[in-house]
Design a protein that fits this description.
six-stranded parallel beta sheet, three-stranded parallel beta sheet, 41% helix, globular, binds NADP nicotinamide-adenine-dinucleotide phosphate
């Protein structure tokens, strides 16, 4: 029977610490870190994610400004908004909620964000720094997952890790963070045949494929740590569920996460941490000097 790693509990503890830190920063610098969020259109998932981010900012004392744009605004209007936020010295973090409606050039919009304010870590300059091991803004979901494992003192060094999914925002940066932690990493994607040959070899299995409950007990080895990134609707119940069949895997895993209440809250928590880091960079406290 596995121990459940609760992202909800861990993020609550980390947010309580950040609340104290933000209060001290306010006293020292006369302002709180400031996150600007741009959301375009009415995608219900995006609206709900943005509300979650606003709630966390409010809990911690991070200033939050949300720009909810109608999906008819032009690309130029969005680019101009980003330019003005880049130039605004009171804005530390800029986040564009993805996915954008298809009529927008997502890449151009992300590339327009000042890399020092790119709290999602999606700007090419931050990606290049990540892959060349330079201090940078780490993508939130992989960063949150590493923090979850460390919170339970789960050994990563020398372990075999399998990452299912190779997206730019989860799978690929996740792989790099594990390599940097001295793990040996394999990656499985939709074209991988006999996937279980890789997944069953893993001490730590990260599942980020966006397919409800695909990963069952046959995919995991006894005692594996299983981290479920997926956020899906269960086709049978309509409830939120992960990519992992929790009930099937839980008896064999050593540690496991749930959906909801697992990786999701840690992603938001990492976003808050990145906003504070960005603030510290802007007030002159260099990233290299920090732990
Ligand atoms: P994505 O961009 O759609 O990428 C999915 C990846 O999974 C692709 O690399 C795809 O392979 C691979 N894949 C799909 N079906 C597979 C299968 N049956 N076996 C093995 N690999 C398979 O998705 P994403 O943005 O990484 O997100 C993945 C999931 O995590 C989604 O459910 C998303 O909602 C969730 N998510 C959660 C959080 C959070 O904070 N909790 C954050 C981000 C994402 P190919 O490359 O071959 O197509």
């Amino acid at each position: 029977m596995a121990e459940v790693i609760s992202g909800r509990d861990l993020s609550a503890a980390l947010k309580a610490d950040m609340k104290v830190q933000v209060k001290e920063l306010f006293q020292k610098y006369g302002r709180a870190p400031h996150l600007a969020v741009i959301i375009i259109g009415d995608n219900p998932g995006s609206i709900s994610y943005v509300k979650g981010k606003e709630k966390s900012c409010n809990e911690i004392g991070i200033k939050n400004t949300t720009f909810h744009l109608n999906a008819r605004v032009s690309q130029k209007t969005v680019m101009n908004l980003i330019k003005s936020l880049n130039e605004d010295e009171t804005v530390d973090g800029i986040l564009v909620q993805l996915p954008l409606p298809k009529s927008y050039d997502e890449e151009a919009i992300i590339n327009a964000i000042d890399p020092t304010k790119d709290v999602d870590g999606f700007h090419p300059s931050n990606i290049a720094k990540l892959w060349t091991k330079k201090p940078c803004m780490l993508p939130c979901t992989p960063k949150g997952i590493i923090e979850m494992l460390k919170s339970k003192n789960i050994e990563i060094k020398g372990k075999r890790v399998c990452v299912m999914g190779r997206s730019n925002i989860v799978g690929l940066p996740m792989m790099k963070l594990f390599i940097d932690e001295d793990a040996t990493v394999t990656m499985v994607h939709s074209k991988t045949t006999r996937q279980w040959e890789f997944t069953r070899d893993a001490d730590i299995l990260i599942v980020a494929i966006g397919k409800p409950k695909v990963v069952n007990a046959r995919y995991i080895k006894d005692g594996a740590v299983v981290i479920d990134v997926g956020v899906n609707r269960d086709p049978e119940t309509g409830k939120l569920c992960g990519d992992v069949d929790f009930d099937d895997c839980e008896p064999y895993a050593s540690y496991i996460t749930k959906v909801p209440g697992g990786v999701g809250p840690m992603t938001i928590c990492a976003l808050m941490q990145n906003t504070i880091e960005s603030f510290l960079t802007h007030v002159g406290d260099k990233m290299e000097d920090r732990k």
